[in-house]
Design goal:
By secondary structure, this protein is of the alpha+beta class. It folds into 2 domains: 164 residues, Ubiquitin Conjugating Enzyme; 48 residues, no CATH class. Helices cover 22% and strands 15% of the residues. The chain is built from 5 helices and 6 strands, in the order H-E-E-E-E-H-H-H-E-H-E. The strands form 2 sheets. A 4-stranded antiparallel sheet has the order 1-2-3-4, sandwiched between helices. A two-stranded parallel sheet has the order 5-6. Helix 5 links the parallel strand 5 and strand 6. The longest helix has 15 residues. It is globular, with a radius of gyration of 19 Å.
Length: 230
């Protein structure tokens, strides 16, 4: 991260951010990925996988985190860039761990802590919170599928480059990946029997280890499974 040369590494916020970057890289999560911009380490781009056993399962949701200058003593702000049916896009999200509720924030928390909380928060009742949406489950499922088509477009070319690169490692650290995470090409029609062309991200041997329990949620799908070995 060449641009960090312009920052004072003895600054508590800068020091903490660089520590978190290093920790993220050395201990990646299978559920999310997050990196700061080269030109501004206080702005991060992230992508999270939709929580399992929810209408968001299988989705990839991109977003932006803005860290305050006195981080970690004050909380960050969050916004999603990918339509989810749960949060408005490009609007700050009201969470207990966000800048809307600084009284709840703990300096020991981190970007990792916040993203884990955000994933857990997605299936909860919005309750009229700022930046929240209350779409029907079937609409959220459709948006989850659509979210995999391409990363959202947002901001400068530098931001876009990072957005395009930030994709969670969907099979990292997991012996069995939920079925909806394995779809790379598909054709889906909510109203009628539909065929779905599937390319698996796992080897046939590993696929046999997996329980395709998510299929029970979509009994109207006819699946054409194409096995692919790495």
């Amino acid at each position: 991260m060449a641009a960090t040369a312009k920052y004072n590494r003895s600054n508590p916020a800068v020091k903490r951010i660089l520590q978190e970057v290093k920790e993220m890289q050395s201990n990646p999560s299978p559920d999310f990925m997050a990196l700061p911009l080269e030109e501004d380490i206080f702005e991060w781009q992230f992508a999270i996988l939709g929580p399992r056993d929810s209408e968001f399962e299988g989705g990839i949701y991109h977003g932006r985190i803005q860290l305050p200058s006195d981080y970690p003593f004050k909380p960050p702000s969050f916004m999603l860039l990918t339509p989810s049916g749960r949060f408005e896009i490009q609007k700050k999200i009201c969470l207990s761990i966000s800048n809307y509720h600084p009284e709840h924030w703990q300096p020991s928390w981190s970007v990792r802590t916040a993203l884990v909380a955000l994933i857990a928060f997605m299936p909860t009742n919005p309750g009229g919170a700022l930046g929240s949406l209350d779409y029907k489950k079937e609409d959220r499922r459709a948006l989850a599928i659509k979210s995999r088509e391409a990363p959202p477009k947002f901001g400068s070319s530098e931001r876009q480059k990072l957005i395009d690169e930030v994709i969670p490692s969907q099979s990292s650290g997991s012996k069995c990946v939920p079925f909806l995470y394995l779809l790379t090409t598909y054709c889906f029609n909510h109203r009628s029997m539909s065929k779905c062309s599937v390319r698996l991200l796992l080897s046939p041997k590993r696929y046999q280890m997996c329980q395709t329990r998510s299929l029970t949620n979509y009994p109207h799908l006819t699946l054409l499974v194409s096995m692919q070995t790495r």
